[in-house]
Structure formats: C-alpha cells, structure tokens
Amino acid sequence: MNKKFTKAVMNTSILILSLILAFQISGCKKPEPIAQPPVSSEITSDEPSEPSATSSEIDAAEPSEPSAASSEITVTDMTGREVKLTGTAEKIVVLSPSDCEILYALGAGGAVVGRGEYCDYPAEVSQVPAVQSGSETNIEQIIALNPQVVVMTKMSHSAEQVDAIENAGIRVVSTDAQNIAGVYQAIELIGKITGRDSQASALVGEMKSGFEEIKAQAANAGSVSDNSVYFEVSPLEWGLWTAGKNTFMDEIAQITGLKNAFDDIEGWAEISEEQVIDRNPAYIFTITMYFEGTGQVHPVDEIAGRGGWENIGAVKNSNIFLLDSNEISRPGPRLYEAAKKVYEIVYAGSGN
Amino acid sequence: MKRENFSLANYIFFCAATIAVFLVCLCVGSVGISPANVFQSVLSFLTGGDIGTAPAGKIIVFVRLPRVICAALTGATLSVCGAAMQGLLKNPLADGSTLGVSSGAALGAVLAIALGGAMPFFANAGIVPTAIIFAFVSLFAIIALANKLDSGLAANTIILTGVVFSMFANSLISLIISFSGEKIKPIIFWTMGSLADANYSNALLLLIAFLTASAVIIKNAAELNACAIGEENARHVGVNVKRVKLLILIASSAAIGICVSVSGTIGFVGLIVPHITRLLTGPNHKRLLPASAFFGAYFLMLADLLARFALSPRELPVGVITSLIGALMFLSVFYRASRNK
Predict the structure, then answer these.
(1) Which of A11-25, A41-55, B176-190 has the highest mean pLDDT?
(2) Virtual torsion, Cα B275, B280, B283, B285, nearest 10 deg
(3) Which residues in chain B have their CB less than 8 angstroms from residue A308's CB?
(4) Domain range holding A237?
(5) Are B165 and B97 contacting, i.e. CB atoms less than 8 angstroms apart?
(6) Which residues contact A172 (CB under 8 A, 6 or more apart)?
(7) In the predicted structure, residue A7 carries a pLDDT above the cut 60
(8) Is A209 inside a domain boundary?
(9) Which of A175, A203, A231 is the last residue of a domain?
(10) pLDDT in tens, B223-253
(11) Is the pLDDT of residue A48 over 60?
(12) Local structure of B49: helix, strand or coil
C-alpha cells in the first residue's frame, strides 16, 4: 500500500519533471535569427568587455559642442513616440552598435557615457563603460550612468524597458531602421537630439550620393552576363541562412546591379542546400566569422570545397568572397563601405 | 500460439515499406526533380559513373541522398534505443532525452564549441567525440547516483535521476549560451537539431552506431521481455538484471550520443515511435524492437521531408516538426488507447 503510494508519487513527479523539461527544450527552439539582422550583427562583435557601470562622470576629453541655443527640443522617434528634451543631449547611453556608429559618425562620440556591450565601432568606444543590452538590458546600470537620453533600437527592447527608463526620468529615443531610408531617418533623428542637424544631413547626403554613384557606375559597367548573388549568413554546418528581400544585403545587391538569388524570400531565412545548387548563383558573399590562426578553414575555401557545389557558377569562377558582417548588416553609415566593397569585388578587375 | 519472432515475411514487408518511403523522400524535395532523373543520378552514383554537371544530379547525390539516409538511420537508432529503455526501465517515459543522455551529449557538444575558441571548423573535429564522451559520462553519473540512492537500480530511480540530470545539463547549456556571444548560432543548432549538414561520413558513423546498438539490444530481446514483466520476475527466470541493464544502457547511450553529435537533439522520436509501434506489434520485444527501428526510420524520413519541403525554399528545423507531430500523435494514440479500455 505504502509502497504503491510512493510509486504513484514518484511517477507523477517524473511526469511533471519531464513536462517541465519538454517546455525547457522547446524554449530553446526559438529560431533566433529570423529577420533580425541587427541581433546577429551584435553577435558578431568581439568579446564583450565586462560591464562596468561605476564611473558615471564623463572622462572623455573632448566635450560635445552643443548648439548655441540649448532650448527645448521635441522629436518624434521612429516608434512614433514624441520625446521632449530640455536641450541637446550631452550625456547619452546608446545600446545598439548601429546607433553608436551613427553618434560617432556625427562627431557626437564625446556625449556617449555608456554603450551596449556589443557596441565595438569605432575602436575608441571601447573606453566607454559598457552596459548589458537586449532583453537583459541592465536598467540599474543605465540609471547609474546618469544620462539624459538613452538611444535604443525598437527591435531589441520591450515597451516595459522603455517605461522603466522613462520612469527614472531619462528620455528614451528609439530607432527602427529596416532599410537604408530608415538609416537616413535614424541619422537625422540622432542628429536632432545631439544638436547636429547639419552634420546629419551632410552624412545622409554623402551616403545618398555615394550610393547613387555606385549605382550609376554599376549601370555603366555594362551588363554582367550573370549577376545573381547568394548571401550566406550562416554556413552549411549550422544550416544555411540567407538574406532575402527587405534586408540590407538585398538593398546593396540592387545598388550594385546584382540580383539576389533569394529575393523571393522575405527577410533572413534558413534555406535548403538544394536551392542554392539549383539557383546556381554567379556570386557568393559570406559573412561567416573568420578567426585567423585558429585552424578554422577560411569560409571561402570551406564553401568552395562543399560536395555538389563545384558546378555552381560562383564556385567554378572563384567568385566567393568574405564580407565584414558588421559592415553589411548593421543599419549604420558603414553600409556605404559595404556597398563600395561589393561593387569593387564585382566590377574591378573583371573585364566588364 | 502467437508467433513470437519477427518473421522473414515481416522483414520483407518492412524493408519494402522502407524502400518505398525512402524513394518518396528522395524524389520529393525543395527543388523539383523528376523521378527518372533521380533514379538515373543514383544509379550512376552507385555504379561509379559520371553524374554529370547538371544541378539535379549534384543535388540528389550530395544533398538529398545522404540526408535521407541520415534521417532514416537517426530515426531508427533513436527509436530502437527508446524502445529498449522503455522496456528495460518499465517506464513509458524513458528515452534518451528523459534519461539525460541526449542533454549530456548536447552539453558536451556545446562545451566543445564554447571552449574550442572561436574556431567552428577546428572545433568540429572535437565535437563528435566530446558529445559521445559526455553521453557516456552522463549515463555513468546517472547510474552511479541512482545506484547510491538505490543499489537495485530500480527503474524509477534511474529515470528520476536522469530527468534531474537533464534539467541540470539544459540549464548549463543555457548558461553557456548566455555567455557565448558570437558563437550562439552553432549552439542553438545543437539544442534544436537539424539534418541539413548530412553527408556520407555522417551516414557511415550513424550506420555503425545503429548496427552495434540494435545488435546488442535485439540480442537481449528475451531479457528485455523478462524485465518488462518485472525485475523480480526477470531475476527469478535467471536474468542477470544488472548486467543486462548496464549493457543496454551503455549501447543505447553511445548510439544516442552519436546521433546527437551528428544531428543535434531531435526530440520525441525515441519516446513516441516505440509507443505507437507497441500498439501495432504488442509488447513482445522480439517484434517491438525491429518494428520500432523501421517505424523510427519512416517517421524521421517523413518529418525531415516536411522540414525540407513544407515551406520550400525555406527550411524548418526538423526537431520542431518531430515534436509537433509527435505530441499530437502521442495524444491521439493515448486518447484512443484509454477509450478502448
């Protein structure tokens, strides 16, 4: 009797435990990278430095130059929220690498008092205290840095986090760049809150004319006989992921006169190896991280050596190239450099 | 008297069904290739002929064929191991994942990635052995702990220890993931399971694992039958319960470790396939074990077919499909079985 009861209890607890386990396992199954270029670009950063939120003073030598009249500024951020600032922001915590790059490109790097742990460009940003970002954003650390404004990206933060920071008396400005036009918007928004509207429109103008120039040159370079391109976001070993329509890579393909072989797919997606062989792209660009001197096979050689791929145009003609994943997937000013590199790879040296 | 063994006719029937499912899976895929073309490619590949430069031949020979083979072998191995563990431990919830072996193997793979520096391809050389070693170590840890708690190695003690160990291993994996930054993608793969990277050397490894494990297990079918009736009983008819238990657990955990190292943790296969098979064959392990292997192969081949084909040109993680379909099938089978009572 007693034994039977113990057994029943044991059986039930086993059932409950395995249910919990099943949930835990299924929790791990979230396919993270779907349509989240910035997340993965965060992933690709170097070892995040230890978050150290202790020093709240700005040690940075050059103070930002605020615009003369620091009167009230009202902006509508990219989530449609109206944000009122008492003056230009001089102490900013920036959480996403792309917004961080924009701040520095506008010359407002001196105003950055805290950065998300994955912000790694330009190099000098590593001297700024890092805070945890994303779903584990450490709000205490942010408040301790005593900024006027926190710049965050809509995708990687929740409304609750925004509220919590706002409740602490810190203004939150969210960016949400889904395409290059969105990047311009983000630049102008960040220009506004830092009192650098003219620098912002200059940067936007520069990017626009740069892209136009590439586009025109690509058009002039004459038609490449086959211009299809496959972007490899994740190598075969972990399942092939590519960038489809409405990604920065797709936009860059269009600018450089290439045709994304997977533009029938929306966003980032896992695709079948069969499809790559069947679609026979003329160019392959991979953004697999490469760590020299670690014994890792170079991503280009790894792709070239795959069984069954030897007759793909890109493999046959050695048109496989490694790109800097941070450059081509972060919604920031460096997208232009990425486009330029793609253009040079495709058109320079090829007799077209 | 009811026939006991899996007869030759049974084998022929099940093999024919395997070939049929295999061919369907080979002919259907993300890229449409005519069956004639498929057969031609396979034939010229098998006879060492030229498969030509057309993409169709390359796709069949280098992508689809190894993948379907790996799916069949993984499904068969996981199922036969699951069936053996369920019989051995007299517990319907026993399989590689509840016993902690899969999680242990996954933990090994994840550790190899995380500690292997930032070198996915170099580290890969270390992933397979690490996964297998961890599968073993987990099993020994579980058995040692269970033995300490209960020297008779009662089934429930082993399962309970295994479940606790699984949770422990999974939380360690989560911990490693949260510290791993850029290496997160490979690690997610190990926790999700995928057959996308299947190739012939994987297939060979799986074949060895399957043959070894199923030989050991099926050879002990009679002992398993005795254990399933009751360990006391088994002891009375002269079965060395402890020895059989160790033998089968070691064979299964090694095989499961190899499956995990090749395709990540594919959930539910080892748990539900034996249950569904049991409804058709009855509980006699002499029939249940081989039938489970066949059904497991069908199940995973078809699940992987769905993963490859359902959202073409996209792919789905096969673990999601096995868990989804598996859970639903399991429920309906359970529901019907309990209504018939």
Answers:
(1) B176-190
(2) -90
(3) 58-59, 61-63
(4) 221-347
(5) no
(6) A77, A81, A83, A149, A150, A151, A152, A162, A165, A166
(7) no
(8) no
(9) A203
(10) 888 888 887 888 888 888 888 888 898 898 8
(11) no
(12) coil
Q: Is pLDDT larger for residue B81 or for residue B335?
A: B81
Distance CA A162, CA A149 (A): 11
Measured in angstroms, the CA of A73 and the nearest CA of chain B are apart by: 37
Q: Does domain B8-336 have CATH number 2.60.200.30?
A: no
Please indicate if any CB of chain A lies within 8 Å of the CB of B261: no
CB contact under 8 A, B122 and A295: yes
Q: Cα-flanking dihedrals φ and ψ of residue A62, to 5°?
A: -90, 115
Residue A253 phi/psi, 5-degree rounding, is -60, -45
Query: Within the 23-52 window of chain B, which residues sit less than 8 Å (CB to CB) from chain A?
Result: 29-31
- In the block, residue with structure tokens 């993965």: A40
- Is A157 domain-assigned? yes
pLDDT at B167 exceeding the cut of 70: yes
The number of domains in chain A is 2
Q: Are B85 and B261 in contact (CB under 8 A)?
A: no
A317 belongs to a structural domain? yes
Tokens at A275, concatenated = 């499809």
pLDDT at B306: 92
Judgement on whether residues A245 and A336 belong to the same structural domain of the protein: yes
Assess B218–A contact: CB distance below 8 Å, yes or no: no
A225 min Cα distance to partner chain B (Å): 19
* Cβ atoms of residues B163 and A21 within 8 Å: yes
Angle of CA points B13, B19, B21, to nearest 5°: 100
For chain B, domain boundaries:
8-336
Pair A172, A117 in one domain: yes
A139 to chain B nearest CA, in Å? Answer: 18
B53/B62 Cα distance (integer angstroms)? 12
- Residues 6 or more apart whose CB falls under 8 angstroms from that of B116 comprise B122, B123, B126, B127
Cross-chain CB nearest to A29 (options B163, B174, B320): B320
* Residue B212: burial class (beta carbons within 10 Å; 0-12, 13-18, 19+): middle
Does A156 fall in a domain?
yes
Question: CA-CA distance, A269 to A34, in Å (whole number)?
Answer: 6
User: Nearest 5 degrees, angle CA A96-CA A98-CA A103?
Assistant: 95
